[in-house]
Amino acid sequence: MYIPTYDDMLDAHVRIAPHIRCTPVRTSDYLNELAGCQLFFKCENFQEPGAFKVRGAANAVFGLNEGQAKKGVATHSSGNHASCLSYAAMLRGIPCNVVMPRTAPQAKKDTVRRYGGKITECEPSTTSREATFAKVQAETGGDFVHPYNDPRVIAGQGTCSKEFMEQTGGLDMVVAPIGGGGMISGTCLTLSKFAPETKVIAAEPEQADDAYRSFKAGYIIADDAPKTIADGLLVPLKDLTWHFVSNHVTEIYTASDQEIIDAMKLIWKHLRVVMEPSSAVPLATILKQPDAFRGKRVGVIITGGNVDLDKLPWMLGS
Amino acid sequence: MYIPTYDDMLDAHVRIAPHIRCTPVRTSDYLNELAGCQLFFKCENFQEPGAFKVRGAANAVFGLNEGQAKKGVATHSSGNHASCLSYAAMLRGIPCNVVMPRTAPQAKKDTVRRYGGKITECEPSTTSREATFAKVQAETGGDFVHPYNDPRVIAGQGTCSKEFMEQTGGLDMVVAPIGGGGMISGTCLTLSKFAPETKVIAAEPEQADDAYRSFKAGYIIADDAPKTIADGLLVPLKDLTWHFVSNHVTEIYTASDQEIIDAMKLIWKHLRVVMEPSSAVPLATILKQPDAFRGKRVGVIITGGNVDLDKLPWMLGS
């Protein structure tokens, strides 16, 4: 297991800078007052493909040597990693093969195809996904870029916190959602060196709290088919992300689905940005645990902005 | 009639800079491709009270001498001007009296009160509004800040285009929605001197096209109770804004309500910002008249971001 270093992150930033956006930081006096702390929101939903995952994807894609680049990249994902990897591959002009369950939303498939990604459908089971992916990779020779358990991906995600600290002039803590742990690991990687006094807090849905339980237990516990409105955070930690979580994360807080929806609506209304339920988990936990954040300079990473505008969570069931 | 000058705009920018945000400019490769031109979106919806109108309001409020400031300001409005003037008055710590029809949405009243504005309700008629406002002004001595037909307001709105040109390094045209014409007038004021080769295009809902018809006729024509989803654009031009529209605007384009809703959804989806139907009118007209914009560097001012998230236009009637 190769653990990416701070220098890998610096190299990644130089490599991907021409292909990503240095996203703006937004503030809201109203939300500051509500939360009792000074909030800074890093808008990774403003990346062209709408998610921070373009950082890690671009680092993997643009780090390939010419020989490997000809064969392209491959992954399995039905979320933002699939579209961000396709997007990065399109920018370099190389093939991207994505294995996706046939049950994935049509909109996700459309986005991957719009960026030139080639989709191979599998059944919605781990067995089918793994078998299908092995076949695709054998046929194409595409380099496997895991959605988060990959040192190139973690080094890429780490570039976000470097920008964030430079843009804000320093923060007491950075809060990011945790699913597989790619963004949290990148944040730990960067801040443990760049600003070791800055705490890294992970925020997780109560209904998919495997990282929280792993963190408390001291070893990886996986959820059994979790269900939450924050559907970007369903995947479990893996060895590489567990390394960063267990060594560098200060605390993991959780919030209920209703608290996540309420926080999402607050951000839409007062920051006026469109973001996913997953990206609302940090604010939900901050409002739930105000004493942990009171008076602090708190950075929040808004991880993604790809939502179905026809099915907003506060509209469902009404 | 005092016509504000370029120097008034420069003075306004110095005066209001500590109280407003230099809002970011967003781009989308997807929307560029769709429109066939290079689009730059100036996000005035990211002002703290959610609209560009804080510029003109802050210029009026912070330009008052101490004697007048004690008596505060007064206006009649049920829209963003009311909340932005209340917000600016709150920042200076002076009274703000707002006359508002009793039928105005509760959310608008709540926002004005949250910023410390004092609301006096009137009946929803011009007669009642004028009588009520005269009484309020006589009682309070508050300085009348008209929502748009005021040189201080127009000079304030003009600061937006100065930032826009500096941030983008120049544009072939700037497109903004037109209602009463405050933002368009400020844009004309600034660009006619700062970048006289840059065209100013106004965008208007077909269902409230009084500015378009006035522009074609050569004199002010007012609509009789217009109705459109772009409810920020219902008010008519007045002498001061007509001066700028008739002298400096290159063209006025219109779009239907359905085209406005479609454009709004495109911006929410691909720029990932929350904005009002009124702010979608420019993109709707650009997509409707692609030949007029093809290959150009086109600036679009996203004027405001205050919407009712429970009543989004594409959800209504479904």
From TrEMBL, chains A, B:
<dbReference type="GO" id="GO:0005524">
    <property type="term" value="F:ATP binding"/>
</dbReference>
<dbReference type="GO" id="GO:0018114">
    <property type="term" value="F:threonine racemase activity"/>
</dbReference>
<protein>
    <submittedName>
        <fullName>Phenylserine dehydratase</fullName>
        <ecNumber>4.2.1.-</ecNumber>
    </submittedName>
</protein>
<dbReference type="GO" id="GO:0070179">
    <property type="term" value="P:D-serine biosynthetic process"/>
</dbReference>
<dbReference type="Pfam" id="PF00291">
    <property type="entry name" value="PALP"/>
</dbReference>
<dbReference type="InterPro" id="IPR001926">
    <property type="entry name" value="TrpB-like_PALP"/>
</dbReference>
<dbReference type="GO" id="GO:0003941">
    <property type="term" value="F:L-serine ammonia-lyase activity"/>
</dbReference>
<dbReference type="GO" id="GO:0000287">
    <property type="term" value="F:magnesium ion binding"/>
</dbReference>
<keyword id="KW-0456">Lyase</keyword>
<dbReference type="GO" id="GO:0030378">
    <property type="term" value="F:serine racemase activity"/>
</dbReference>
<keyword id="KW-0663">Pyridoxal phosphate</keyword>
<dbReference type="GO" id="GO:0030170">
    <property type="term" value="F:pyridoxal phosphate binding"/>
</dbReference>
<feature type="domain" description="Tryptophan synthase beta chain-like PALP">
    <location>
        <begin position="16"/>
        <end position="304"/>
    </location>
</feature>
<dbReference type="InterPro" id="IPR036052">
    <property type="entry name" value="TrpB-like_PALP_sf"/>
</dbReference>
<dbReference type="InterPro" id="IPR054856">
    <property type="entry name" value="BHydaspDhtse"/>
</dbReference>
